[in-house]
Protein: Altered inheritance of mitochondria protein 39, mitochondrial
Organism: Candida glabrata
Amino acid sequence: MTYISRTMLWQRYLGTRISSTILPVAVRRIHYGGGRLQDPRYVFSKPPTNDPNQSKEGRDGKHFFTPSVNDGTENSTLHNNSRLSESEMSSIANAIAEQKRKRLKRSIITIFSAFVTAVLGYTIGYKVWYLKEQSFIPLYPCSRVRKLSTRDLRRVSVKKIEDISEVRVLERLSQHKMIQEEYGVPLRDSNGKAPHVSDFSVWCEDQDPCVTGLVFEPDSNRQSSHSWYRIPYVFKWRITHRPISISSFIDDVLNWINVSTSDLFEVISPEKVYGSFKYEYPIQGDNHSLHICFLGEMKLDENTTVIYKGKYHVDVKLERIDLLRTENKKLVRYILFKEEDEK
């Protein structure tokens, strides 16, 4: 019989007590269910199944908070119940589109405000206040044809143009064979007197494209023929029309880089600007190509009227003369003179 001391018995007793206390904490027990071992990945959750009607507690962990879609079958009942209606989807889409439109509108307003601020700051703040110079802001293109301004009327005599054009028209009519045969020479109207102009109009035509814009100047007491809108002690402004000279713009760009047009080419073409008046002097004060055009009407009798058109630059230059006459209750036009026919 083996002798066991009290010390060994005491050690065995303590070891048994300690192991019985520690092992339940450190060792995981494996439970058996249905004859199969439980998957250790789903100790704290239930494994997924292929049953579409299973509860949420038995679903796949990847779709715990969202409905799953079965492969090869229609969407689950929960998924169908959670689908948004067409009206709700349309409302969401409209809200997103409205938000985008508001954002785009804010961006456009910001860019436009920055552009206007920069233009006004340079035009008024720098050129008018600092440099004390005149500045011009173009707004929109305008027609090349315009009425004579008050300043133009002081430099051009409309009565003189009317009288000279009347003489030139009578000269042309007296040389025409149709007028000589049907009305005779010297030409007389129904009252037996020399025909006179009954209606006459004058206007300007710029050769260069024109724009309408705002002119700014420092506010001063200097007299001017123009009507100004004023902000006292700040600046004054008015609306005006100005031509855009492409050749002058090119000259300015070349001068900025210390190159002149004479270094590149030299073209002399007075016919382009002054036509047949290349040996005449232009009107003083004009810094761009400007034509003064006129249209006149002269009656020969109750059924016959002469209409003529031309340009004025120191002298009158006729472009066209038409005769309008009523024949068999119809208005017939005869072209008596046309400038292109003589070239």
